[in-house]
């Protein structure tokens, strides 16, 4: 049984962009803050939906992240992009061993590198990057053989993670 719904359409970012554009043109009654709040709630709902979870602290999410990572890291295009993201993360001078043990718990089954990889992969599910992370996961897990589109998604993910880790 898969813990992740690749068929789910993640739309929070598209809706955000559309509403912000309408707000800029004066065609919507919402303020920018209202749009951000609405889309933050939508993001949370969609995140729980793709993981088939009822709560953000549901163990299903951690299990799914581990499962998904082990399945998509075998894709060479994803692996290359992910290695760049991990390298960027490591430059932040964070004690990732301590942080990882807080997030994932101490485990003798995983190596420090595996913990780091899972922690960085988990960070790709944040509000800023989830919409594009989902597209990458869907593309790889459904074995869609369109490397041009996947490369575009991965380039967008790399760009967003640059903004995220440099913020």
Secondary-structure topology with pairs:
Blueprint: H1 12-24, H2 32-50, H3 59-72, H4 76-90, H5 96-104, H6 112-123, H7 130-141, H8 147-166
Describe what this molecule looks like in 3D:
- The protein has one domain.
- The model has no long low-confidence stretch (mean pLDDT 86).
- The protein is globular, with a radius of gyration of 17 Å.
- By secondary structure, the protein is an all-alpha fold.
- It is 68% helix and 0% strand.
- It starts with 11 loop residues before the first helix and ends with a helix.
- It has helices at 12-24, 32-50, 59-72, 76-90, 96-104, 112-123, 130-141, 147-166.
Summarize this entry quickly:
By secondary structure, the protein is mainly α. The protein has helices at 12-24, 32-50, 59-72, 76-90, 96-104, 112-123, 130-141, 147-166.
Keyword list:
single chain; mainly alpha; globular
Low-confidence stretches: none
Task: Characterize the largest beta sheet: strand count, sense, and whether it forms a barrel.
Answer: none
- Note the gap between the termini: 37 Å
Overall 3D geometry? globular
How confident overall, as mean pLDDT?
A: 86
β-strand number: 0
Q: Report strand %.
A: under 5%
Tally of discrete structural domains: 1
The chain-level structural class is mainly alpha
Could you state the order of secondary-structure elements as H and E?
A: HHHHHHHH
Q: Give the number of helices.
A: 8
């Amino acid at each position: 049984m898969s813990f992740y719904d690749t068929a789910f359409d993640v739309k929070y970012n598209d809706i955000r962009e559309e509403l912000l554009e309408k707000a800029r043109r004066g065609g919507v009654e919402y303020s920018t803050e209202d749009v951000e709040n609405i889309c933050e709630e939508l993001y949370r709902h969609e995140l729980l939906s793709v993981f088939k979870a009822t709560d953000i602290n549901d163990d299903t999410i951690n299990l799914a992240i581990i499962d998904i990572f082990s399945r998509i890291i075998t894709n060479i295009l994803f692996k290359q992009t992910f290695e760049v993201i991990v390298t960027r993360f490591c430059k932040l001078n964070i004690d990732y061993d301590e942080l990882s043990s807080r997030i994932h718990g101490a485990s003798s089954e995983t190596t420090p590198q595996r913990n780091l990889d899972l922690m960085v992969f988990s960070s790709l599910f944040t509000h800023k990057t989830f919409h594009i992370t989902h597209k990458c996961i869907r593309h790889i897990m459904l074995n869609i053989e369109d490397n041009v589109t996947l490369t575009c998604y991965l380039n967008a993910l790399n760009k967003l993670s640059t903004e995220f880790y440099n913020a």
